[in-house]
Fold each of these.
Amino acid sequence: MREKLPFTKKEYVQRIRRVKSLMQQRRIDVLIATDPGNMNWLTGYDGWSFYVHQGVIISLDEDEPIWFGRLMDRNAALIKCYMKEDNLYGYPEKYVQNLDEHPMTWIGENILNKKKWDKCVIATERDSYYYTAEAHFRLTATLPNANFINANNLVNWARGVKSTKEIEFMKIAGRITQKIHQRVLDVVRVGIPKSHVVSQIYETAIAGVDGYGGDYPSIVPLLPSGADASASHITWDERPFKKNEATYFEISGCYKRYHCPMSRTIFMGKPNQKYYDAEKALIEAIEAGLEQAKPGNRTCDIANAVDTVMHKYGIDRNGARCGYPIGVSYPPDWGERTCSLRATDLTVLEPGMTFHFMPGIWQADWGMEITESIYITDTGVETFCDFPRELFIK
Amino acid sequence: MREKLPFTKKEYVQRIRRVKSLMQQRRIDVLIATDPGNMNWLTGYDGWSFYVHQGVIISLDEDEPIWFGRLMDRNAALIKCYMKEDNLYGYPEKYVQNLDEHPMTWIGENILNKKKWDKCVIATERDSYYYTAEAHFRLTATLPNANFINANNLVNWARGVKSTKEIEFMKIAGRITQKIHQRVLDVVRVGIPKSHVVSQIYETAIAGVDGYGGDYPSIVPLLPSGADASASHITWDERPFKKNEATYFEISGCYKRYHCPMSRTIFMGKPNQKYYDAEKALIEAIEAGLEQAKPGNRTCDIANAVDTVMHKYGIDRNGARCGYPIGVSYPPDWGERTCSLRATDLTVLEPGMTFHFMPGIWQADWGMEITESIYITDTGVETFCDFPRELFIK
């Protein structure tokens, strides 16, 4: 039984049009999108099935996209996607994690060759997470006369400007994010196991807000303390929070796969001056960056504004970017992997673009994050969350 | 500051020996492991950093493995890995999600070429999740004279037989799994939003058991109801549980990245006969499979025992396998992607092997799962969890 789509069919059709227009400009006949976020955005498909090979095929010759995946997951596509049943292809179970038989061989033979796309220019997402080297070899082997090129994240770029409804979902995610941070402030204290605080974060994240259930975020809560905060991506364990350590909480609520990350730092005890200096620098850097965040300016203008402030305070960010686009996504990343807020990035800002603006400081033996998710408006910028922008002390 | 390793250094050294022996047998000089589970098992590395390119390199020429990843994550490697600092390589920040500069170019030039491995047989994990087609192209372009071959999951196979300490971690994960299922039975009822139940699942999973904090599982809780249970991988939303529907809960606790999944089905209301029949068939199939699970028998012997029972009850499982190996892992999968419990699989069972044994039934408009995580002992088999094996009715 087909579910109500999260967006109108008209919105999906418009997305496909946008992608086809970009395909035509780049001389692509057939595009294969394997990034689960792209699959969702193009078709409505949503399921934890990206641990097997799957994708969406768009051809300039056909109105609707084609979904392919494991036969068992075709039932999920029937429930979630807007396309007609004929455009959903399931490969047999024997192709699942079988070293001798690869799903992409089946896809090449049963879809692309049968559709007579064997001499086309076919673009694949060559650096997207679930498109493995082997998938590429198996697929190309079935179509020796096709011209395979890199899609260079074409669909990710098409996703950059969000619709009103997408912004609405991100605002719900943002309200969940705020609720989580408030919960953290309520429960965190010296001596409490980190795993306990994370259990409360998850409880709050999934319970959601005002009747909107929370979805799983594409990155787990990150909350490194003390020297571990120099190593941003270490996850928690059962050891307790210690006195006189800073912990930053990089956390996102998620609603219908849309994210809205935000970070805040909590110091338990009495911080020394370097933390107050870093707080001051970060807040000023955020304000300077937001000043530059408006239509017509570029991503590098935001990055340069941040760098100028950091330079003034003598802080070296080791060339780290200070943000990236966000939206619909699946593990392992909530970013869109297109532009970055970085000094060399020339992307022009447009209304509806959304970023996690994160001028964090990661030094050899400590770190601090105060970050905001933002969207570009017709005249400037808004933050998704409304939460005190400060170093919290407990 | 280096942390205490989850396993003794001796155990890691022994693992590397096992891998090198397999490499030599297969005429591999250098192996590049990019599966985060393999990286953890080989070196102790653990972090949510697999959204950027990273890996572990093992050469027959060198004692220790080499870790490579983003410069920012090198700090995490310093804290988590047992190798000396010289064997940890971080690529500069400008290579992070930058379409013009690829980390694998840096790896090829700064590690493999400098070590003079440019004419070696180099094996990569060609179908592992985070080894993209582009990563392969960029890497091979830097070493035109090397002979690149597929590692065919060599490290995953080496992980098959677990150590005593690994089994101990899985037992802790199993205790968390039981605790979650008990929590589900306590809170689930008609009318309650599914997201609320999931929030309680996560709260319990991460709080852990007896002082052992829970880690994030590599697959989110799956709990499809009614017709959605035909589509196993659809995730939850805020809609409430309905009367007269079955829901199966496929859930794993996780401890230090080790998993122990188990599924149970709950019917809310009064089930019709088909559910009782399916329950009977599944329990009998599990008993028949466990009977075959002993050293010397093969994976196909378990699968055939299940199929015989299913056939007797007239249930068609559409060729789906009935289990897979489990252990240390990262999203998107808690399986090991080597053998399967499947009629064509000839893997010989050995003491210390661990499986999620899951003879689920997925039909066109309903589904049921009763599953167990198991380990092969010297004489037979044990289940990790001790939880009533039945269809629960509420």
Amino acid sequence: MAALTNVTRNAAVLIKVIGKHRSFSCSTVHHGSGKRVGFIGLGNMGGPMALNLLNKGNSVTVFDVYPEAMSKLQDAGASVGHNPAEVAEKSDTIITMLPNSGHVQEAYAGENGVFQTAKPGSLLIDSSTIDPSVSKEMAALAEKKGMIFIDAPVSGGVMAAKAGTLTFMVGGPEEQFPNARAILEHVGKNIVYCGPVGSGQAAKICNNMLLAINMVGTAEAMNLGVRLGLDPKLLSSIINTSSGRSWSSEIYNPVPGVLPNVPASNNYEGGFGTALMTKDLGLAQNSATRSNSAIPLGSLAHQLYRLMTVRGYAKKDFSSVYQFLQKSENSN
Amino acid sequence: MAALTNVTRNAAVLIKVIGKHRSFSCSTVHHGSGKRVGFIGLGNMGGPMALNLLNKGNSVTVFDVYPEAMSKLQDAGASVGHNPAEVAEKSDTIITMLPNSGHVQEAYAGENGVFQTAKPGSLLIDSSTIDPSVSKEMAALAEKKGMIFIDAPVSGGVMAAKAGTLTFMVGGPEEQFPNARAILEHVGKNIVYCGPVGSGQAAKICNNMLLAINMVGTAEAMNLGVRLGLDPKLLSSIINTSSGRSWSSEIYNPVPGVLPNVPASNNYEGGFGTALMTKDLGLAQNSATRSNSAIPLGSLAHQLYRLMTVRGYAKKDFSSVYQFLQKSENSN
Amino acid sequence: MAALTNVTRNAAVLIKVIGKHRSFSCSTVHHGSGKRVGFIGLGNMGGPMALNLLNKGNSVTVFDVYPEAMSKLQDAGASVGHNPAEVAEKSDTIITMLPNSGHVQEAYAGENGVFQTAKPGSLLIDSSTIDPSVSKEMAALAEKKGMIFIDAPVSGGVMAAKAGTLTFMVGGPEEQFPNARAILEHVGKNIVYCGPVGSGQAAKICNNMLLAINMVGTAEAMNLGVRLGLDPKLLSSIINTSSGRSWSSEIYNPVPGVLPNVPASNNYEGGFGTALMTKDLGLAQNSATRSNSAIPLGSLAHQLYRLMTVRGYAKKDFSSVYQFLQKSENSN
Amino acid sequence: MAALTNVTRNAAVLIKVIGKHRSFSCSTVHHGSGKRVGFIGLGNMGGPMALNLLNKGNSVTVFDVYPEAMSKLQDAGASVGHNPAEVAEKSDTIITMLPNSGHVQEAYAGENGVFQTAKPGSLLIDSSTIDPSVSKEMAALAEKKGMIFIDAPVSGGVMAAKAGTLTFMVGGPEEQFPNARAILEHVGKNIVYCGPVGSGQAAKICNNMLLAINMVGTAEAMNLGVRLGLDPKLLSSIINTSSGRSWSSEIYNPVPGVLPNVPASNNYEGGFGTALMTKDLGLAQNSATRSNSAIPLGSLAHQLYRLMTVRGYAKKDFSSVYQFLQKSENSN
């Protein structure tokens, strides 16, 4: 889901998950689980998450391929491992936050991976957004070694990672959910149980594919209306009080000037990049192909975002699809 | 917008238009405008509207190609004309509610059309959903005869037509808006001024195109999630508290059983038919082509609904796209 | 069809129409029809066509909104009219070659249009590429005045217009076909009878929509293959000897360097412009919507070409979609 | 490429590959390679291929999960293995012809797979159509054991398999190509070298994606033309002599009655099934996503074929997309 770096006030809307479906809202300060937590992957999301774990009193061992990412955590009190295996050796619970399926396979099943040294009974929580089939593959390997692998991708973006208000969509054995929640509530606000391993990924992928479709649709409708002579704020207010409304039109409108404090009003800087959305749409496409599911609009949104990445929009917020549809300066 | 025949409780959500942008909420009983109102087109929408005009104390003359549609109104106190020209002869203000552009052209500019007999200064309000370019064409012809033509398509469906709570999106000369509103508030709750003639059509077309996109997208995401093993109610609740939410997922969910009282939970009966949505998407496509606007997802939604109309879904509610995507009984 | 200005050798492939289906190949020199021919619209296509009519010994009266276009023909021996009506006054047969539907409506049914002065029995041949419904509209108006209106759009481009080797796709009353052919064989090589009025436009629109689809498809397949490591010439030869082959892959390959003498090997200069293809796809879309025909790939090709026109490709040959799909310099 | 079971006369067109690009045409009778050949996967394609190897005098050991498939070959003189490992034990060269990537992984790298027992130096030729990334994965595993893995998917269908006239698109180390060719010319007519391992799959995937696009496009254009009133044979002849022509329109026209001896004229029986085309489009989609290639029409064709598989067309020839677009009996 959208990494709303500069849209703080909207974050609540993005991530509020009603407290049914076994979710859990944590509002009090936590004082350490007593457990030793390993954290692998200290990027924009993982770094703040590991810091929150430390700040909540946990004993944390970290690893990242970039040494500078580790030294920051070290300064804050974390121990350091030289590879995933070393982290696993010193931990009971391990959280991974990595860019893609390949990194996750390497971190767990690679030569110096977690599976080499983690103790039977270890809880392995992968918060990366990856292919659900890789989550299942890792879970099967973990099970052979008596470990528990859980997928728990997040929603809420960098701001929520820093604030410790992430939403986690959790897939794994239901009896392990309380243990996972006990740790994840140190870094998140809403922990939702989604079903067997891979279900967390599935839920995230479905939501983000729909987000992309709604956003492209909103951009098309707003662009069409403006070209037909409508004032964008007026059209936006009509849509938002009618059946065309969505999160994309109400909270994250792609037309510059319609809403303050959204990427569209800031030259599409910040927010959730087109390249990242393209990656998530690729995962949705893979899952749809594998499960024989027809996703005509999802596929086309995927292709449009892919075109945008090769036309200069890779690092712009994904709402820049509005700009992509418009007449450009160099057109004839 | 969706004709929510059996979704009464949701109608308010569909049609509430915040009272800025020169809209007007009528909450008190009205007692006749003193003006003579003509009403042409007494179908599922036009019939109840004409009845409301009568009940509010107006003098109403009606016409429809089906005599039985007229006799119902006659019993309720309406006068009858034998063609649009006869209606126009006896009226100061004329409202039309017709199926498509061709009917509107015929009713106004045809052999026995309104333009033949209407007095200079007459206010002609077309509430049909048609091509904005036809609205402009009619307005130009009206202007030559000293009449005022206004487009005012509606949102809210049959229930709102009966309840007199329709939303009108009005396009025409701004100085004529108060006059149009004075009549339309007898049949509607929210009257929104959108700009010059054709703007009402433009606003409606943009909203409905977006509605179609969001609905197909919701159907795809829900279908994908279910095939990946997620419970549809759980997935729906995750989407509705996250960035994928829209009117289509929250108020009109296309998956049977997720919401009560929606067409999806009633075998896709009632609601807003696939054939009508296809017609609106055709209007959006025409407007987009004429204005050189790219609408990739809108075009694809158009084509998918068109495919549905030839595969047996023409009369089903447009949320039946969920069923269209699923494995059917006769598939291999 | 493609205006292959610099692909002379391929022109034959593009326009050869086997001599059945009532087509007619003219190979001998013609010496005037004795009829007075009017020609309206002297652009890139119309200019050379009018010149050929003159050179074949006809008495020709011309009109164009640009005086300089007329003086060129005047120098070659043509008479000049100040508007379509003046041309019609002096002619028995009139040929129009105009940019779009609106121009055609104006030239025939406008204030100083052909219908004002043409004699009953006049043969009106429109070679513009326009909406078949406008052809039918003009034919109906002509019929009321006892004139015969025929649609006869062309294939072959500027080179064929100059060489007098155009293909004409003719729609109109079958008994009038010999008369139309007698004139058109002065400017074309293959004259194909397609059916009632509008059929010529229908045939052209269907072919060009398919051309666009095949071209975008070829560009996608070639681009995918190259990114997967295949040599483009090798892939091209495999496709061209297999089931993926088409005119677009064999004769007009969109990958620079695969074929000599095609726009792709000349920086996509010349050829058939993206803006013109977009116009034809708009006509196909209109006809499909009006006839309730599903054209999912045609619609998407339309939208992609529309996107290209706003991203700087309007004047490039339509095979530049290959470049549009590729990684651009300013992408990340 | 299309499995043209009942389209014998067209097979030549489908598979002729000009003899450059290191391809090789075998026209003389071959008398055994002296090598021991293993063959795994004896389905509609593999069965006849194995039989041809036997008939050309090779010593052949076979395996299939269905015993009856093996007994047929046993009767013809083949030895039998109880699993891939047993086949590999008795062979110098092994050919596999399996339904999908998973089967290939199992046959080579599974518990009783080829890699368990094949001798260093063995030539492993996989003729299945699978994901090129799996071909590369298998090649890497083979290399570790000193074996050579080559991908060589086929074109031409069941008829060509029986006739020994298949086309092979070969990917692997160039120096191994002569060895592969020496065996493959016993079962095929054209052996094309495409590049490093995976290149054969890439070429096949690109061609088949383009075939699907051209076919859907042809169906759309023909359907549109017919609905606009054109005779399908006439439209077909215009397209086939113009720029819209392709293998799909000329050799395999999807409209019933336009061509004899194609599936369209035989109730879409035989030919290349929609489910198989959907599988190949899924492979194209996976390769495109992995290589960041935009394939908008390819993706949409994929989704349309996927929709067809759930609407009753799974076993019909892929040209039945024409019927899918048309008005059906139960539509309103």
